[in-house]
Amino acid sequence: MNNILSANSIRFVILLLAQVIICSHINFMGYINPYIYIIFVFLFPIRENRLVLLVISFLLGLLVDIFLDSGGVHATASVLLAYARPVFLKTSFGMLYEHQSIKFTNTELGSLITYITLGTLTHHIMLFSLEVFSVTSILLILKKTLFSSIFTIILCILIIILFSRNKK
């Protein structure tokens, strides 16, 4: 239990710092940004209390908002991602989730990609809808969501494979 707590604490701090120091300054073509801090929500232990995940996700999003001066959009999108996470887990992993036996270190790559994609798209749609906050700018919201999601999904999967997968 202590090992899991320390690993999650380290992951929280590293992803927060990487997001704030590196990823938030990429801004490719004016609207493509990776949001890798959501990896924390994706990899949070499944057997942990769901309320703990919601509170920690809010705290993570709030800290990103404080550092980026973004007014709460990351906190809202992070909480939505944490709230919808069980649906994405069940959709992506099926019976493994039902039996609480998912180990991200040895899951199928297709299931992992599905899980990351569903979560990232949900997070980004909420994030950019709140950021733009205009129905007349729906094309801008969709464009930012699509391109930032592609970049985020690729980075998230690479990071998860490099740092979480079993070495064979």
UniProtKB/TrEMBL annotation:
It is a multi-pass membrane protein. The chain crosses the membrane at residues 12-44, 51-68, 109-126, 146-164. InterPro entries: Cell_shape_determining_MreD. Its main location: membrane. The keyword Cell membrane applies. It is found in: Cell membrane. Belongs to the MreD family. This is Rod shape-determining protein MreD. The lineage of its organism: Bacteria, Pseudomonadati, Bacteroidota, Flavobacteriia, Flavobacteriales.
